[in-house]
Description:
It is a single chain. This protein starts with a strand and ends with a helix. It has helices at residues 16-27, 43-47, 83-89, 103-107, 109-122, 141-149, 165-173, 182-199; strands at 3-7, 33-37, 53-56, 72-76, 94-99, 127-135, 156-162. The chain has a 7-stranded parallel β-sheet with strand order 3-2-4-1-5-6-7, with helices on both faces. It is 39% helix and 20% strand. 41% of the residues are buried.
Amino acid sequence: xxxxxxxxxxxxxxxxxxxxxxxxxxxxxxxxxxxxxxxxxxxxxxxxxxxxxxxxxxxxxxxxxxxxxxxxxxxxxxxxxxxxxxxxxxxxxxxxxxxxxxxxxxxxxxxxxxxxxxxxxxxxxxxxxxxxxxxxxxxxxxxxxxxxxxxxxxxxxxxxxxxxxxxxxxxxxxxxxxxxxxxxxxxxxxxxxxxxxxxxx
Length: 201
């Protein structure tokens, strides 16, 4: 049974596919890695052509997920809530909820958080965390928003993903580890460590 990491948000444009792809790239050298792209835009499956990551058919029945022959499986979900997403969360090990650090983005977390809480009723082992993405370097808004979000039931990771050109290019270049941006590489290494901790590995 693979460890399943779901990247979910009802809001589009928060860097969900970018986070999913780059995390998969971080694990591929040491674990048999799969990526299931359920986003209708198909960003991950259309652009990712990397060795070591198997792109799975988006029509794979949810019930088959635990039986896939992978050590770790990343799921890129569509930017809306659905019954299928609830099904996936009920078999997932970790769900990451990416969000930009604006006030309206923070407000938009509510529905996704509620769905995660509903999934936890059937999957109490599910670990969840909110991730700030596309953070402008030097901006203080993230730290202003963080205390508001941290009052909820799902914690906000200390690690953030900043707004960098290499992340935009990463869908084409095979992840930020292949870039020359050392700050982005460090961010993804720290994010990977956070995911490993959530998985209990």
